[in-house]
Amino acid sequence: MKKTLIYIALLALSVLLLSACQPEVVEVTRVVTETEVVTEQIEVTRIVEGESVTEQIEVTRVVEVAPEVVDFGNVLILSTQAVPVEEAERMRGIVLADFPGQPEFVGVEEPVLLDRVLAEAEAGEGSVDVVISLHGTFPTLLEANAMMDLSDMTADLAEHNIPSAFMDLGKLGTDAQYYIPLMQATYILAVNNVALEYLPEGADTAALTWENVRDWARNISEATGDNKLGFPASDQGLLHRFLEGSIYPSYTGGMVTGFRSDEAVAMWEFVRDMWQYVNPQASTYAFMQEQLLSEEVWIAWDHTARLREAFEQQPDVFLALPSPTGPAGLGFMPVIVGVSIPANAPNPEGAQEMVRYLLQDEVQVNILREIGFFPVTDVEYPGFVSAGVRLEAAAVAQQANSPNALPALLPVGLGDRGGEINKIYRDAFTRIIINEEDIATVLAEEGANLQTLMDETGAPCWPPDPPSEGPCQLQE
């Protein structure tokens, strides 16, 4: 920034120069103080009545002092995200380009990350400064005392307005902050504007309930003769995430513990009622953006990545809305990516600066543009961000910041048996909704399978279920 030139002896200098016949600056002597104020001694020579007269003038001005260049050194980042070569290069060349140090980004699969960080924790000497991974990675690191407590950083990061529900997840059931939420993906509703004509009376699109959605679909069906509500129910679709992370938490408050509860029975009765208004081709749907663009459906629930093309191609046609709420709250499944610092990081100061850097607005926007994860911070989007991305981002932020938000995390602690929990929920859906079997009988039998999975893997409960000591237990 340019600073104003201040002349202490401005008036005296002006008089001398105006009266001189041939003014001439003959010498400049600089005295620079330790502040931003610079004093200059200026000798001015003039001719008066044929004689040379020299006067010394002192001039003081404020100068721009170049900021100190801070180098936070080498910062090694081990990440389970942005692993593909193209994404990793975008992280290095764009996302991390302005970091004041020498970042080294290494993308690895989760088993490799865990093996390395845990081995270094046991050895007492680390090489990794920053870990970026999904929520489910961090409990294993915490159990081995391999994570630094970042509680002292939270006050400085408050300005970013990270949703409190996400910050709580980073505490991993403790009073300390072990990871800072960095980015997210999730599941929302996409709605064609033509459906608004049939919105139930009193329903608020910004705060829908699942009952509103059912009634909306019923109104459309009765008026048009077509079922325009859609879910990704094929083998390639993410129906199991709807069950695990949206409808179950919204009605029972949890994912696992209430699987066979009375609230779960009521929930399945509701789903059975709603499903009569779902498009009968739902069992073939994978990515709901395709059915939205063809207008085969007008209302669809799916992952943001699988809705994105609809919003990008026709941002004036579609609304992006938060997931609906149920009796227990707004159940939704955020895919939370956090950033942490290993307990024996060789450059903890640089690691902390990296955490601060990654949460800056422009960096959060670059993460969205380059690898497709939405910000966790309160970001003002620049003009180059597309209208479609803005639509999704607004719904994602509104959902996360809802006062009754009930984030349901991806299953944790199941290891290589993670696919089995998805099968249990999908089998329950097929038996209850498609085959119309007795709800209580199905929940008892599939609940026994779920409990066996918990017991055999030793997986403790994860949010939104309350913490457990030992394997997560289903309510009787």
Question: Summarize this, please?
Answer:
The protein is an alpha/beta fold and 476 residues long. The protein has 16 helices and 15 strands.
List the helices and strands and how they pair.
Blueprint: H1 10-19, E1 24-32, E2 37-48, E3 51-62, E4 74-79, H2 85-95, E5 102-107, H3 110-123, E6 130-134, H4 138-143, H5 154-157, H6 164-169, E7 180-185, E8 187-192, H7 210-224, E9 229-230, H8 239-252, H9 262-275, H10 288-293, E10 299-303, H11 304-313, E11 318-321, E12 330-332, E13 335-340, H12 348-358, H13 361-371, E14 374-375, H14 387-400, E15 405-407, H15 418-434, H16 439-457
Parallel strand pairs: 4-5, 4-6, 9-10, 12-15
Antiparallel strand pairs: 1-2, 2-3, 6-13, 7-13, 7-14, 8-10, 8-11
Helix pairs in contact: 2-13, 7-9, 8-9, 8-15, 11-14, 15-16
Q: How would you describe what is shown here?
A:
The chain has helices at 10-19, 85-95, 110-123, 138-143, 154-157, 164-169, 210-224, 239-252, 262-275, 288-293, 304-313, 348-358, 361-371, 387-400, 418-434, 439-457; strands spanning 24-32, 37-48, 51-62, 74-79, 102-107, 130-134, 180-185, 187-192, 229-230, 299-303, 318-321, 330-332, 335-340, 374-375, 405-407. The chain has 476 residues and is an alpha/beta fold. It has three domains: 10-62; 74-184 and 334-385, 3-Layer(aba) Sandwich (D-Maltodextrin-Binding Protein, domain 2), CATH 3.40.190; 187-333 and 408-457, Periplasmic binding protein-like II (D-Maltodextrin-Binding Protein, domain 2). The strands form four sheets. The chain has a six-stranded mixed β-sheet, with helices on both faces. A four-stranded mixed β-sheet has the order 9-10-8-11. Strands 1-2-3 form a three-stranded antiparallel β-sheet, with helices on one face. Helix 7 (210-224) packs parallel to helix 9 and helix 15 (418-434) runs antiparallel to helix 16. The longest helix is centred in the C-terminal third of the chain and has 19 residues, at 439-457. The radius of gyration is 31 Å and the shape is globular.
